[in-house]
Write a structure and sequence with these properties.
single chain, alpha/beta, seven-stranded mixed β-sheet, Rossmann fold, EC 2.1.3.-
């Protein structure tokens, strides 16, 4: 990586601003270019969750351990973890299957003035070995994994986590009650409108993403995390239909 990298150009998210042919959402180069703007305007609480990942990492990271950001995209949570790790003998790994995301992530990592090295891997997180971990992050990533493959992934993470280690899991969720689902969805859409998205943008993105982002209930997440081998699961943040959970391995 260059010692004086040029920051990648960031653009305003206008991907769904004009009528387009229906197609499933993909994390390609066009999304990578607008991703910081897209996620800030689309995910309520994202700008709170990222700095808190640093705080949680600092509380739970163990000397000589490995830390993983699975589905790291442009590296926001990777950098938060990096700044929360006080031990120079730790290893920090960011993984994403989008080459466009990893390429831009490299720039952001290089621009960050911090001595802890970061290893970036362009691969499927389902293929990433997890070993000797104290902190692992799945920040709005599991929802893009096929539902039938989620349990095995979480079990592998739990097995590779040290006693007392944690998984930070942020997800869009759905609700048991149809009434609550409607209310929370409406509030989420109002959040997007307040951030400048038009009804056309909201509708077209929802159509594009609904086949690839499969949300589940909080109860389903909690049950699966406990079954995977975590001792305690708690919600530490929620805004509308977006939550972040902390799953802790028994000491």
């Amino acid at each position: 990586m260059s010692h004086n990298p040029t920051p990648p150009q960031q653009e305003t998210d206008r991907l769904f601003a004009t009528p387009r042919e229906p197609a499933d959402f993909r994390f390609d180069a066009s999304v990578a270019r607008v991703f910081p703007d897209m996620i800030r305007r689309s995910v309520p609480g994202y700008t709170t969750i990222i700095p808190m990942i640093e705080v949680i990492t600092e509380q739970y990271v163990q000397p000589g351990s490995h830390c993983y950001d699975l589905g790291c995209s442009l590296g926001a949570s990777t950098l938060a973890m990096r700044h929360g790790i006080p031990y120079r003998d730790c290893t920090l790994v960011g993984v994403d299957n989008s080459s466009a995301m990893i390429e831009r992530c490299e720039h952001y990592i290089a621009l960050d003035d911090h001595p802890l090295p970061v290893t970036l891997l362009c691969e499927d997180i389902l293929d990433t070995p997890i070993r000797d971990a104290s902190v692992t992050t799945l920040n709005f990533t599991l929802q893009f994994v096929a539902p039938e493959r989620r349990a095995a992934l979480l079990s592998r993470i739990a097995e590779g986590t040290r006693p007392g280690g944690v998984l930070i899991l942020s997800e869009k969720i759905r609700f048991e009650s149809a009434v609550e689902q409607d209310i929370q969805t409406r509030l989420h859409h109002e959040f997007k409108r307040a951030n400048g998205y038009s009804d056309l943008e909201i509708s077209q993105k929802r159509s594009a993403i609904e086949q690839v982002l499969i949300p589940e209930t909080l109860a389903a997440h909690r049950e699966r995390l406990l079954a995977a081998g975590f001792e305690r699961v708690m919600v530490w943040y929620q805004c509308f239909n977006f939550v972040s959970m902390l799953a802790i391995k028994a000491s």
